[in-house]
């Protein structure tokens, strides 16, 4: 059983004082999944990851990675985990190649073929000094070092930050290959759009506390979506639209109506079908709206 | 000790250590060249005892006195001390604050092994500067016309190196314990400067004379290595202090939260 759990935390707490830190985190991440860790900056995502790597110690609680205790067995954990820190630096005078050589040596060497394939995939510029690299190119070196020893578990703090869209695509395909091989990815982000294409499940953290852990599809069904509807002829009464199941709010702007709704779009679509709908525009729901919908759910109870 | 970490740390500081050593050689050559013209004419300065003590006796009439005052008393320990302290603090707390160690220590590497590797690299840097000092002393004395035994020049260089080990280890312990580079550099430097003053003045004041035993300068120069050769007991004290402080550094960093 325990071998199927890649990461579990029990009451994991890091109290920095003044309400900052991470509080009573209970989390279970299954082997082979991509688990997204969402929250605004300062929510405690990086703190959690640093606790898992034993870079900082918990105030209380514990964490288990690959069946090993994050504190007592830290060295064994770090041997089997690849980590990309959120705001990391590398030796500025060294080239990417030299940095990777050093980090590979710390692991007793890595498969050169794997490392080269990663460098090719990301089109990393490894022959230039780190100091001369852009954020995105430095991030590539960070990603290569995290993946190059083919770890069973990847802990990636804001991995997509600074990557151009093309590199993001190759990163996504790499994640799929990794999880197809039964390995686990735990990645953080402060925007939903970064993780929604790759994550199976998502946890949302706010002010150091876990708000929710859910599958991305459940999250979507709960999340409030916004639809902008244009009408060629009659515009329905806002009260009628707001009376539909799931609809939270309807606002009319001339021949347009902004409708926000949660759950299935079906009742709304059926109701709109009676009208001459000239345009439909769906708005990307962002993390903040998902937070808010969870808050609203809490208030209603 | 982490060998890859040691090799990298030596490499990252190698050029600056060699430059410091080269500078030392040039300065010593000039000091040697100036002696025939200046040394004899200054003679022994008539200074208050404590001040003369700080300047290594301020006896410029003999070649030994000249080199003792010009290099042994201030310049040598200053260069060696600065090399050791900046390397120790920079390669540990400095890399921690820059956010490099947060990545390095996510690898299978014990923190204490990292600190020991950095300590060994600091020692290499100190030895490079001490070797430069030795070459410079030999060359400078030759330029000045000779007259100091090779063994005594070696003794001064060795005492300097051990002084560097000790203050470097202090900076390492401070850096490993706090994770703050400026704290490590300023406290270790303050200790060295205070030690320099205490060693000069404490013996003059009854009741606090014992303070000199807390100064690294006491073990570095009170037995006058450039005149009397190596003092094994003094070196043993400096080395023991360096080893204890290095061990303290390796212990302090283990359970602390990493910064940066």
How is this structure best described in words?
- The complex is a heterodimer of chains A (301) and B (260).
- By secondary structure, chain A is α/β, with parallel strands linked by helices.
- Chain A folds into two domains: 214 residues, Rossmann fold (3-Layer(aba) Sandwich); 61 residues, Alpha-Beta Plaits (2-Layer Sandwich), CATH 3.30.70.100.
- In chain A, 35% of the residues lie in helices and 31% in strands.
- Chain A has a six-stranded mixed sheet with strand order 6-7-8-3-9-10, sandwiched between helices.
- In chain A, a hairpin with a 2-residue loop joins strand 9 and strand 10.
- In chain A, helix 3 packs parallel to helix 5.
- Chain B is mainly alpha-helical and 260 residues long.
- Chain B has one domain.
- Chain B is 77% helix and 0% strand.
- In chain B, helix 6 packs across helix 7.
- The longest helix of chain B has 40 residues.
- Chain B is globular.
- In chain B, 53% of the residues are buried.
- Classes of the chains: A alpha/beta (301), B mainly alpha (260).
- Chains A and B meet through helix 2 and helix 3 of A and helix 1 and helix 4 of B.
Write out key terms for the chains shown.
heterodimer; A: 301 residues; alpha/beta; Rossmann fold; Alpha-Beta Plaits; 2 domains; six-stranded mixed β-sheet; four-stranded antiparallel β-sheet; 11 helices; 14 strands; 35% helix; globular; B: 260 residues; mainly alpha; 0% strand
